[in-house]
Amino acid sequence: MARVLSVEVERFPIAGTFTISRGSKTEAEVICCTIREGDVAGRGECVPYRRYGETIDSVLSAIETGRSAIENGIDRKGLAAAMPAGAARNGLDCALWDLEAKASGRPAADAVGVSAPHPITTAYTLSLDTPERMAAQARANAARPLLKVKIGGRGDAERIRAVVEAAPKSRIILDANEGWNEGNLAENLALAAELGVALVEQPLPADRDEALRGMARPVPVCADESVHVAEDLERLAGLYDAVNIKLDKAGGLTAALALRDRARALGFRIMVGCMVGTSLGMAPAVLLAQDADFVDLDGPLLLARDRQPALAYAGSLVFPPTPALWG
Question: Which residue among the candidates 77, 150, 169, 249 is catalytic per the annotation?
Fold first, then answer.
């Protein structure tokens, strides 16, 4: 039976402004891939990320290069060999997962190896801002068990102290988004340890990982921009304690599962993260994150509106996707 691929660019407003060390955004731009086979359709969402040289146009072009393979029946393994990692392959891979689940009547969770997926606790992200405004964000979310705090510039010590004081019962992940340097790394890690921070994410630019070798890490350090696929892991051993797996970096759930398994085998802790996107983009990651050490799948919570049907959130708990959404 012939397949037909359709692709749509969608924009969802963010509630306020989302700011990290590299800049701000007020909307989430996503690409939705739909693969139809007879009366059955599977969907996948991806988010182009400029940090990796991706734009809406470049990802649409990459998807078009895979169109003939998709419509001629390529499977997920073949797709992984035919396309590089990145957002385009993620959208197509997740659409294939959804198509397989709906065509077979077998939940994607079964194929992932999760027989009974359960709700998981996600971090909630606080945007980079002044210490006073970040403290206000933290107070408004102080009941959440896990906060991810965007930092990465002058004044980080004041920001960190302000957030910890405003949300004393929350565990804290600090995400510098490559915003620290070799000159302030040790001091910042020592402060994080003093304040009981649970994890520090990507403190240095990805091309300066080696500065971490042999350095005391009083707080576990997690790679994000430095890790995309399983082949990246060998060089990161001894530099990082954890890795942040994102479907858009890995190029889909298929590759993300391989990355997770290899990371576990090498002794890394696992974070499953996301871009700012809708519930459709989070849904496959919820299955990936069932046994993760840290989960950061709050993308829909940052939006002014989500797509429908959506994932169910109860506070910081995110529930597994229903088949009507994905899988």
Answer: 150
Find out whether 201 is annotated in a ligand binding site: yes
Q: Where are the domains of the chain?
A: 3-106, 120-318
Single pTM value for the model: 0.96
- pLDDT, tens only, 246-259: 999 999 999 999 99
CATH class, 3-106 region? alpha beta
Where on the phi/psi map is residue 165: left (φ > 0), alpha (ψ -120 to 50), or beta? Answer: alpha
pLDDT of residue 158: 97
Catalytic residue from among 25, 77, 148, 246: 246
Please tell me the chain's helix, strand, coil percentages from 3-state DSSP, rounded to the nearest 5: 40, 25, 35
Q: Known catalytic residue: 150?
A: yes
Do domains 3-106 and 120-318 share one topology? The answer is no
SS3 assignment, position 150: strand
Task: Tell whether residue 209 is among the known ligand binding residues.
Answer: no
Regions of the chain with pLDDT less than 50 = none
Query: What is the CB neighbour count within 10 angstroms for residue 52?
Result: 14
Instruction: Please tell us whether the domain made up of 120-318 is placed in CATH 3.30.1540.10.
Output: no
For residue 205, cis peptide bond before it (omega within 30 degrees of 0)? no
User: Residue 65 has what pLDDT?
Assistant: 96
